[in-house]
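Q: Can I see a sequence and its folded structure?
A: Here is a first one.
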Amino acid sequence: MLKGNNFLHDDDNERSERLVLLSANIDTHAVEIGVSGSLLTWAQGASDNWEDLRENALVQDGEMDEAYQHVQEKYAEAADLYAEAKGLLLAIIDRVQKNDDIRNRYGVEGEAPRTFGDLHEAIGQWKKTHDVLVAALDERVVSDTIVTNMVTLAGEMYDLMQTAITEKDEKSDAFTAKQTAFSIDTDDLRLVYHLARMTWGKDDSNLRLLGFVPASEVWTEGSGGEQPENWDDILTGFTVKEGPPGDVNVSVNLHPDADGIRIYVAEGPLGDDNQPEKPQEPVEPQVPQPYFLPISEGVRSWIWICAVKDGVEGPISGPLWVEPTL
C-alpha cells in the first residue's frame, strides 16, 4: 500500500503500484489535469517499461548467480583433482629422490592454491614442467591422462569465469538501466502529481487513481515532531559527482524550509552489487554545498540521503553507489 508521495523513497513494489495505476487511468484524466505530449506518452507506457526493466534486472541477477555457481562447482572439481594429483606427485618425487627444487619447479611446495586465478596458474605451471620432464625421460611425473584432465578442467573453469564476468556486466547494465528509469520516472511522477494537485487539490480522492496519496492519508513517522506534509517538496533530488577519493561530492536540491540533510555511507568491495545495510550513524558532511564525502579508494561506497526539518528525518533516498576514479 502506498504511504505517501515521496517518489525518491519508493521501493520497487511501490513504484510498480504507482505506475500501474498511472498508466491504467491517465487517459481518462489527462485532458482535465493538463498532461499531454511526451509526458502523456511516458505516463501511458511507464508501467510496462518499468516492469520490463525490473524483470530484466531480476533475470540478469539470477543468470549471474547461476554463472558464478558453475564457476564454483568447476573450481571445486579442479581443486580436488589437483590435490589428489599433488599427493601422488609428491609420493613419486620422494620415492625417486627428495628434492625441493623439483617441487618448486612444479609449484607444489607449500599450500594448495586457494583462488580461481591461483589454481589456473598452478595447473599451467604443472603442465609446463610435466612436458619438460617427460621429454627428458624423467621419472618424476604423473600420467599424461591426469595432467590432461587437470588442464581440461582449468580450461573449462576459465571459460565459465569469462561467462560469469559477461553475466555480471549484463547484470550491471540491467540495474543501471532500471536505476536510470527510476530517476527519470521520479521527475515525471512529480510533475504529474503537481498538475493533479493544482486541478483537484491536495486531498482529492482522484489522486489515488493516478498512484498518488491524498494529503490526509499520508503516513508520518519519526520522532521529535511531525514531518512536513510533502517530503518530495523538501528534497527534490540530488546529484552525485564521482571523482578521485576526496573529490566525491553530493549536490542536493533542498527546499529553503529544510534545516539540512543527513548522508549515510557504507562501503563494500569494488564491483559488488550486493547492497550493504544502511549505517546507524550518518557522516558529517561539510557545508556549504557541494557536500564532500569520505569515499575511500578501492571500495564501492553506498550512499543514502534524507532531508532534515526540526530534527526529524524525512524518508531515506537511495541507495546509490559510487566508485572513486583515479
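Q: Show me another, different protein.
A: A second, unrelated one:
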Amino acid sequence: MSTTNAPPTQPAPAAALVGPMPNAPKTVPFAATTPACPAFVLTYGKSGAGKTTDAVQGFPRALFLAHPGALKMAMPLCGYTPTLVDVPTIIHATHYLGLAAAGGYTAVVVDDFSALADATMQLLQATIKGNNKFAVYDAMREAVLGFRDTARRCGMHVIVNAWEAEKKINDKGQMIRGGPMLSGKLPEQLPAMCDLVLRLAYDPMRKDYPWSYLVNGRGDYVGKDRDTGTPDPAPPNLAEILRFNGYTIDRLPGMEWAEAVVEDLAVRLCTVGEKDDIAQVEGIYKHLVKQGADVRHARWTCRDGYHRAQLRRAAAQRWDCFFPAAGLGGGPPPLQLPAGSSAATPTTPAQAPSAIGALIGPAT
C-alpha cells in the first residue's frame, strides 16, 4: 500500500505547537481534473459498521488520510491499492488537503476522524503548559474548525468519517443530539459547513447488507442534506448517493466501462421490479465474469448498479406521495403554467392566478 508520512513545510499557527515532520513533499502528485462542484461530506457510525469499506469502494482515486492498516480490505475486496498518507493529527490532515489539491486529486478521504481527534488532544495536552486550563480545548477547537474551513474551500470532494457518540441527557436535563464523537460543541460545529451528514445505522430490513445511511436525524442525531436529493434511509453507498445528487465521482482507472454497466443494471432493476433483483444481478455478474472481468470488479459493479436502482426507487416513492402520476422516473410532473405565460416571463397571482393563487386570491 502506498504510504507517505510527512506534513508540509509551513505549518499553520496551531501546527506550530506540533512542528513539521521531516522530508516534506511539495505536492502529492496525481493527474486528474478538479471537480466543478465539490462535496464536503461527514459520515459517522459505530466502529466496524462499514464506513471505511464504503469509502474504499466509492473513491478509488482519492487520497486517503488514515492510519496504517485501515485500508487492508481494499485489495481483497476491490482489487486495487489506495494511496495512503499516515497523518498523526488533525493539524497534519489539514495541511494535506492543500497538498492533495496542488497534486491534482479530486477527492480526499479522512478516515477515523475521531481517532485523529483523540491523538490531537493528547499531543496538545503534552505540549501546552501553563495555568490556562482552557488553552488545550481552545487549541483543539482551532484545529478542528481550521480543518473544517479548509475542507470547505479546498476545491475537492472531502469525505470524513467518524465514530458515533450516542445521544444523551446533560446535567441540566437537556437532550444532547448524537453525532460524530468529538469533544465540546464540535459534534455540531464540524457538520455546520458540510453538504451531507449521514449516520450509518443498523438496518435489519436490508437484504444485501444490514446497515443504511440516515440523513434525517429526527431530532435525536445530527443529519443534513443541502442537495435535498438523498432518500432516508439510503443504501450504504456514498459514491452512488453523490452521483445521484449530481456530483462527478471518478471510477478506478481501467474500470471506466463499469459506468455503462451500472446504468444498464439500474434501468433493468427499475423496469422489472424488486422480485427479480437477484436474478438480474446474478445475470449481469455472470456475464461480466464470462467476459473476463476480475470477479472483484464484477461484484463491485453490480453493487453500484443495485444501489443506484434503490436510490431511484426511493426517489420515485417520495415523489409519488405528492404526484402519483410521476412514476418510477422520479420528480414532479411538468409544471402547468397559466395561459399566455412562459418560464422565461413568469406571472404573478395578480396577473394570472396559478392553482395556488386561485385558492388564496390575488396579491394585494
